Structure formats: C-alpha cells, structure tokens
C-alpha cells in the first residue's frame, strides 16, 4: 500500500509561543478581584511593587506598577490578607504567568464597600442628600464648633487654619471618638450636644485620612441621621481629597480636607481687611469727586454773582442805552412828521383858496407841533432824571451819606443783627467817609 505523506508541523519560537499564550490569557480573562495572602513583598527603586499572592493550596506572582502603587493608602506587608483587582497576563521574557495589579484593598473591604453603597442608596432615596435642604454657612459666625477627637492631628490642622484666618472667633471643641467601636454613636452624640447648647453658629466634623475601616464611623447611619437633624450648618472635612463618606453627602458642605473645612467655616481676616481697604478707597474717591463737582458748581455760581457796584454799573449802562434809544426814536418821529407835513403843504396850498391864510395856519400848526415836540422832549428828560435819581437811591454811598454805615464781622460778612455777638468781638464799620475797627463792649439784643 502506498505510504501516506505527512506535512511537518510548523515550528514556532519561544517568543512567539509566549506572545500567543499572553494574548490567550488576556483575551480570556477580564479584570477581576482575587483574594489571598501577601508574601515576598518588595518595592523596587523604580517605585514598582512585586509580591506573591497565595492561599492554602496555590500562589501566583503579582506586579503593581508605580503609576498605580502611588494611590495605595497603606503599606503592603507579608502575611496581610488582601483583595487585588488585576489583569491576568504572561511576562513574555521569562514565561511567567502573573497578575498585573491595579488596586489593592485589605480583605473584607469589599463587604464594607457593599454596605457603604447600600446605605448611601437608601439615604439618598429618603432625601438626606437633597441640595434644597442644605443650610447656608454663616458669613461671620460668632463661634465655630468642632466635633473630633482631642488627640486627632486633624484638630491641630483645623485650629492652625482658624488661628491664621480668624483668630478673633472663639472655637468650641465637642470631643468624640472618630475611630473604632462606638465612634459613630460618639460623633452623633457630640452633634446633638452642640445643637442643644447653641454655643456656635457652624459645626465642623473632621478626621484625618486613613483606610475605609479607619473612616467607617463617618459612614454609619446614626451619624448621617444626626447631621440631617442638626439645626446648625455642618461642614464635613473627613479624610483626604479622594476619600468620600456618607457624612460628606449629608453635610451642608463637603470639604476635601480638615484644613479646607476650617477655611470654609471661618472668614479670611486678610481678605476681609483687603475688601474693607478697597471700599475705603472707593468711598474716598467718590467723596473727592463729589467735593470737586460742588467746587466747580460754586465757581460757576460765583462768576454769575455780581457785587452791588457791578450791578449798579450794569443798570447805569442799561439806562444810558434806553436814553440813547429814546433820543433816536424822538428824532426819528420828528423827522417823519416833518416830512409828512412838508408833503401835505402843497396839497393844502392847492386845496385852500387863500394861500396866505393857509400859510399862517401852517405856521401856527408848525409852532404847535414844535411846542408839542419840545414838551415831549422835556417829559422824556424829566423821566430820565427821575430814573437817574431812582438809581441814585440804590447807590450805597448815598445811603452812607445820609448817616448810615455798614457793619462787618472779621470774616467780612455784613452784620444785620446783634444776634451771636459777644463782648470782645471785633467789628469793621464803613462810613460815608472812611471807617473804623471797633470792639464790642456790651451787645444789645433786639426786642422779641
């Protein structure tokens, strides 16, 4: 029988084999959580962590690179029970099957997260997180309360910040345990005491950073209920910026750190001083502008204000102008009448049969007209003299000539009454001719 011909199987390199195995592993497994005990924990100079994750019957090599390891909130140690979120892969150069770890948490943290999420969902459904019910923080609190442990490092951070920003505001500590069994009840009790006493206007609950277990007291329902029931506005400053607790969601304001909580609760003294200085400068600028505007208006009014002598000169000029206009008008009227009369003379001569009689009549009328014009001119002159005499009465020098005098005080103001005068006051008196400076011996008050 003929022998069957078999094609040889393709040959692959070790590198190709490892590459295919790595692809199979990574495609087969999604990122998953794996529980076990740490063993052989080492941190390389590059910042990467290498360790073995094992249980009673197996183990697997793990690598956690620096970009993920920097977010660890505890230091991994041999014998520690943990849960890791990792990708299954193969380290091709050595053919080692391993896990690339993205997150590490202490064992049991998954149950805590589940409890956290369940409580968060339930309280949110009840409306404890609603923004509409959150109270505004007072701008200038009379006192600030703090709920934390007297031994907490967060208390020192908060006090340092408050002393720097608003040392004038008193701070009241309501001590409470912030970690361990019964800590949640302690925190709730301290919040209740602060509300019952009414000693402060705003309340800070704070604690430094730590693991989920360390911060668990702030995830307890009794604390959330106490915050929700508080009549005082509450600022939550628990843990680091990346830490979130149930207390953060219920509080009226969530601060990323205890220091930030102190900054939110107390006003910044330097910022207030700067704001006051800015308003003072703006007020001074506005006052200066008002004064300048009034000064300009006063100058304008002063230019319009005339002294008696200037007013008299202006009135004299007006009378002179009226006199000139009167003379011009009178002369014009006389010339017009003369022209008209001369125009009528020939007609009269033709109409009258006796020219000599008409001439005599014309002469008589001419004489009457001249007399009338003369009388009109005399009346105008008399009226002009009367106006001139009236103006003379307004001349203060004529008033002084009749025996009157002008009395001024040291500021140059004319005194019309003895009100306000006292013995020893100096007065300046102007007469028709000359003047004198006198001192008051005994003022006489005007009769009531």
Q: Based on the structure, what is the oligomeric state of the protein chains?
A: single chain
The percent range for strand residues is: 15-25%
SSE string, helices as H and strands as E: HEEEHEEHEHEHEHEHEHHHHHEEE
- Rg, nearest Å: 55 Å
Overall geometry comes to: elongated
- At the fold tier of CATH, the topology name of the largest domain is Rossmann fold
Reconstruct the topology from this structure.
Blueprint: H1 14-28, E1 32-43, E2 49-54, E3 59-64, H2 66-69, E4 81-91, E5 96-106, H3 109-126, E6 144-148, H4 153-166, E7 171-175, H5 183-197, E8 202-207, H6 221-229, E9 234-238, H7 246-250, E10 253-254, H8 258-265, H9 269-304, H10 308-351, H11 355-394, H12 396-401, E11 406-408, E12 426-430, E13 435-439
Parallel strand pairs: 3-5, 6-7, 6-8, 8-9, 9-10
Antiparallel strand pairs: 1-2, 1-4, 2-3, 4-5, 11-12, 12-13
What does this structure look like?
This protein has 448 residues and is an alpha/beta fold. The chain folds into five domains: 14-107, OB fold (Dihydrolipoamide Acetyltransferase, E2P), CATH 2.40.50.140; 112-130 and 139-267, Succinyl-CoA synthetase domains (Rossmann fold), CATH 3.40.50; 276-305; 308-394; 401-439, no CATH class. Helices cover 48% and strands 18% of the residues. The protein is built from twelve helices and 13 strands. The chain has helices spanning 14-28, 66-69, 109-126, 153-166, 183-197, 221-229, 246-250, 258-265, 269-304, 308-351, 355-394, 396-401, and strands at residues 32-43, 49-54, 59-64, 81-91, 96-106, 144-148, 171-175, 202-207, 234-238, 253-254, 406-408, 426-430, 435-439. The strands form three sheets. It has a five-stranded mixed β-barrel. A five-stranded parallel beta sheet has the order 7-6-8-9-10. Strands 11-12-13 form a three-stranded antiparallel beta sheet, with no helix packed on it. Strand 1 and strand 2 (49-54) form a beta hairpin. Helix 4 packs parallel to helix 8 (258-265) and helix 5 (183-197) packs parallel to helix 6. The radius of gyration is 55 Å and the shape is elongated. The model has no long low-confidence stretch (mean pLDDT 85).
């Amino acid at each position: 029988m003929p022998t069957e011909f078999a094609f040889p199987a393709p040959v692959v390199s070790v590198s190709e084999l490892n590459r295919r195995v790595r692809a199979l592993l990574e495609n087969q497994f999604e990122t998953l959580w794996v529980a076990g005990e740490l063993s052989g924990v080492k941190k390389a100079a590059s910042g990467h962590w290498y360790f073995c994750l094992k249980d009673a019957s197996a183990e697997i090599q793990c690598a956690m690179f620096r970009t993920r390891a920097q977010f660890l909130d505890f230091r991994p140690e041999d014998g520690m029970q943990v849960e890791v979120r990792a990708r299954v892969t193969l380290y091709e150069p050595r053919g080692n099957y391993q896990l690339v770890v993205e997150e590490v948490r202490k064992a049991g943290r998954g149950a805590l997260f589940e409890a956290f999420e369940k409580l968060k969902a339930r309280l949110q459904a009840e409306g404890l997180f609603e923004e509409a019910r959150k109270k505004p923080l007072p701008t200038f609190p009379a006192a600030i309360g703090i709920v934390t442990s007297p031994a907490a490092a967060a208390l020192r951070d908060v006090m340092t910040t408050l002393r720097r920003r608003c040392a004038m505001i008193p701070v009241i500590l309501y001590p409470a345990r912030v970690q361990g069994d019964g800590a949640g009840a302690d925190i709730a009790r301290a919040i209740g005491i602060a509300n019952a006493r009414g000693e402060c206007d705003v309340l800070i609950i704070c604690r430094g950073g730590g693991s989920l277990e360390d911060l668990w007291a702030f995830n307890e329902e009794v604390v959330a209920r106490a915050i929700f029931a508080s009549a005082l506005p509450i600022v939550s400053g628990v843990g680091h910026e990346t830490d979130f607790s149930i207390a953060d969601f219920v509080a009226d304001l969530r601060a990323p750190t205890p220091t930030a909580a102190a900054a939110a609760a107390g006003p910044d003294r330097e910022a207030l001083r700067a704001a006051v200085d800015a308003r003072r400068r703006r007020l001074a600028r506005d006052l200066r502008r008002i004064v300048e505007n009034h000064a300009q208006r006063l100058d304008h009014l002063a230019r319009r204000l005339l002294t008696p002598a200037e007013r008299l000169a202006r009135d004299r000029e007006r009378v002179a102008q009226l006199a000139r206009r009167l003379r011009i008008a009178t002369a014009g009227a006389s010339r017009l009448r003369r022209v008209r009369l001369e125009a009528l003379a020939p007609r009269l001569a033709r109409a009258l049969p006796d020219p000599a009689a008409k001439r005599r009549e014309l002469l008589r009328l001419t004489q009457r007209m001249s007399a009338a014009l003369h009388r009109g001119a005399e009346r105008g002159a008399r009226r002009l003299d009367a106006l001139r005499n009236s103006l003379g009465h307004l001349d203060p020098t004529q008033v002084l000539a009749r025996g009157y005098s002008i009395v001024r005080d040291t500021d140059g103001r004319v005194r019309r009454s003895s009100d306000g005068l006292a013995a020893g006051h100096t007065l300046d008196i102007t007469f028709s001719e000359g003047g004198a400076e006198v001192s008051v011996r005994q003022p006489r008050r005007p009769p009531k």
